[in-house]
């Protein structure tokens, strides 16, 4: 007799992990190993980014907080990196989820987002004191296959 077994792997498995199936029947035993391969790089992840800022408009020297929403449009969990590119007239103050500042970029590594779910990051900056009424500052964020930009008016 032939039996067919269909197995769905756990979403927590990563590229390179191994799944082992062991079957015993009477005095017989067989083991089958399967290596997990994920051929989708983080740049292929189907995500949508939206950014909001507060306050807007802001004044020179104000703290401006950005809420960055990364929505996983896929039905499976993903792990993704995100990068925020700071305007020359912004000073990084804080970032949620272990944000890491590298020059004018803020990096979030290995963010896990469940299927059909949204992960919210926060980033707080200070608008330069040298800005004038009518100037703007911009924050651009990239993750997966999407990017978004938020412009904050200075008054």
Topology:
Elements: E1 18-25, E2 28-35, E3 47-54, E4 63-72, E5 78-85, E6 90-95, E7 100-102, E8 105-113, E9 118-127, E10 136-143, E11 146-153
Antiparallel strand pairs: 1-2, 3-4, 4-9, 5-8, 5-10, 6-9, 7-8, 10-11
Précis, in short:
The protein is 0% helix and 55% strand. It is mainly beta and 155 residues long.
Describe what you observe in this structure:
By secondary structure, the chain is an all-beta fold. Helix content is 0%, strand content 55%. The chain contains no helices and 11 strands. Strand 3 (47-54) and strand 4 form a beta hairpin. It is rod-shaped, with a radius of gyration of 22 Å. The protein starts with 17 loop residues before the first strand and ends with a strand. Residues 39-43 have low confidence and may be disordered.
Question: C-alpha Rg, in Å?
Answer: 22 Å
Average per-residue pLDDT, rounded, comes to 88
The profile of the biggest β sheet is: 5 strands, antiparallel
Overall geometry: rod-shaped
The helix-and-strand class reads mainly beta
Number-wise, the strands total 11
How far apart are the first and last residues' alpha carbons, in Å? 78 Å
Order of helices and strands: EEEEEEEEEEE
Count of DSSP-assigned helices = 0
Percentage of residues in strands:
over 45%
Uncertain stretches of 5 or more adjacent residues = 39-43
**Largest sheet: spatial strand order:** 7-8-5-10-11
The helix content, as a percent range, equals under 10%
